Amino acid sequence: VLPYKVEGLNVKLAATTVPPGGSIQGRVGIQCRGAPGRHVINLQALRPDGRSARYLIRNLTPPPGGLLSHGRSASFMLPIAPNESKGEWKLIFTDVPSGVSATATVTVK
């Protein structure tokens, strides 16, 4: 239904390692030809055991024309509780209108 093809999501993390009690921060934008319209990107965080950290689910809305290379992206910040699981966390970003997704990993040490 979109007048353009979403080719992917660009995810940029501020750091790939965070301490318990710290936060995962970054930006995500739509990758496509032309300027994208309004999108919603769902973000889920999976603990090292594969379970979803439900308190970290977010819906992000980059501004229209939200190409990461042009500085038009949605920022996010996920606070990690001091008693959370240590290890490799998986972040799953899904563009709701197109279903296109991207993943990133962060290590909680």
N- and C-termini, Cα separation: 43 Å
The secondary structure category is: mainly beta
Q: How confident is the prediction overall: mean pLDDT? A: 90
Largest sheet: 5 strands, mixed
Rg of Cα set: 14 Å
State the strand order across the main sheet: 2-8-7-4-5
- Helix-strand sequence: EEEEEEEE
Binned strand content: over 45%
Strand tally is 8
Helix content: under 10%
| Uncertain residue ranges | 66-71
Count, helices = 0
Oligomer: single chain
Shape: elongated
Characterization of the model:
The chain has about 110 residues and is mostly beta strands. The protein contains no helices and eight strands. The strands form two sheets. It has a five-stranded mixed beta sheet with strand order 2-8-7-4-5, with no helix packed on it. A hairpin with a 5-residue loop joins strand 7 and strand 8 (about 100-109). Residues about 65-70 have low confidence and may be disordered.
Give structural attributes.
109 residues, 48% strand, 0% helix, 5-stranded mixed beta sheet
Question: What is the structure about, briefly put?
Answer:
This protein is mainly β.
Detail the topology: elements first, then pairings.
Blueprint: E1 6-13, E2 17-18, E3 23-32, E4 41-46, E5 58-60, E6 74-79, E7 87-95, E8 101-108
Parallel strand pairs: 2-8
Antiparallel strand pairs: 1-3, 3-6, 4-5, 4-7, 7-8
